[in-house]
């Protein structure tokens, strides 16, 4: 479903150049759950941005169901994201002036779907927020806001869910619950999930863990055997 082919990427700032990826090739199959781990500043977020078509590689290709993202124009990329991707950010990124229901319905409203509200309501029920539909983000706890963000990312049944440290801004207990929810919903719907996390307990629950370090993406043989891992 996703194929990274000889992908290289760097940022240039003045005279300095930061290499993020150097000639990386990886395949991610449909339905797989893949965790991206690695030290701070190694480029995990940048990699997610590449997968979403929000950054362009310096060389190589990101293939999404055989389509090379770097050959698509802005509108084509926006359509692809709207129809096929759901994105969960660490800091929720909810619209403060919209209720939980309106936030969750947003991707379907944008797509002009008449059943936007019904579907959003059903999705909020699935994430356990059926009783908070009319609350604004400021009236919700961190874990509840993240559950609205997950509902919004999944409401249009995307093929690919990208999550950037979805449990990073939450206390341990809430983070673990959100991680389980995301993995559970993913297993139910069979979507492909690529998530960035520092939480090795969460990563170990995925099918594969890829570690980003020095511009290389290397497979962890067994998540449970990585030094900072805890048993699932
Ligand atoms: N737009 C940009 N221009 C220049 N440098 C950037 C830009 N975005 C990110 N960087 C640099 O690229 C490197 C990778 O950033 P990125 O956010 O992808 O890392 P990360 O692995 O997700 O980090 P963290 O785990 O701390 O969130 C960092 O050193 C960052 O300072």
Number of strands: 10
Number of helices: 7
Query: How large, in whole angstroms, is the Cα Rg?
Result: 18 Å
Which ligands does the model contain, each kind named once? adenosine-5'-triphosphate
Residues in helices, as a percent range: 25-40%
Please give the CATH class. Alpha Beta
Mean pLDDT equals 91
Write down the domain tally. 1
Biggest β-sheet strands, sense, barrel = 6 strands, mixed
Identify the CATH architecture. 3-Layer(aba) Sandwich
The CATH homologous superfamily is termed: P-loop containing nucleotide triphosphate hydrolases
Strand content of the residues, in percent? Answer: 25-35%
Low-confidence regions: 224-232
GO molecular function, one term: ATP binding
Pfam families: ABC_tran
Family: Belongs to the ABC transporter superfamily. Macrolide exporter (TC 3.A.1.122) family.
Keywords: Antibiotic resistance, ATP-binding, Cell membrane, Membrane, Nucleotide-binding, Transmembrane, Transmembrane helix, Transport
């Amino acid at each position: 479903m996703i194929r990274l082919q000889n992908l290289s990427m760097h940022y240039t700032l003045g005279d300095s150049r930061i290499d993020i990826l150097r000639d990386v090739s990886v395949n991610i199959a449909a339905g797989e759950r893949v965790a991206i781990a690695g030290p701070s500043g190694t480029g995990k977020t940048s990699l997610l941005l590449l997968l979403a078509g929000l950054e362009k590689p310096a060389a190589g290709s990101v293939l999404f169901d055989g389509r090379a993202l770097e050959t698509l124009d802005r509108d084509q990329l926006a359509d692809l994201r709207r129809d096929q991707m759901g994105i969960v950010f660490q800091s929720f990124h909810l619209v403060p002036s919209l209720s939980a229901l309106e936030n969750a319905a947003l991707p379907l409203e944008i797509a002009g779907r008449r059943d936007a509200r019904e579907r959003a309501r059903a999705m909020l029920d699935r994430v356990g927020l059926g009783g908070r539909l009319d609350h604004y983000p400021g009236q919700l706890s961190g874990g509840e806001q993240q559950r609205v963000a997950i509902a919004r990312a999944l409401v249009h049944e995307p093929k690919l869910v990208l999550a950037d440290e979805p449990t990073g801004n939450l206390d341990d207990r809430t983070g673990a619950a959100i991680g389980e929810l995301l993995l559970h919903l993913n297993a139910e719907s069979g979507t492909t999930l690529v998530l960035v996390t520092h939480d090795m307990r969460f990563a170990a629950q995925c099918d594969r863990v890829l570690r980003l370090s020095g511009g290389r993406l290397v497979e962890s043989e067994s998540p449970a055997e990585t030094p900072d891992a805890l048993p699932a």
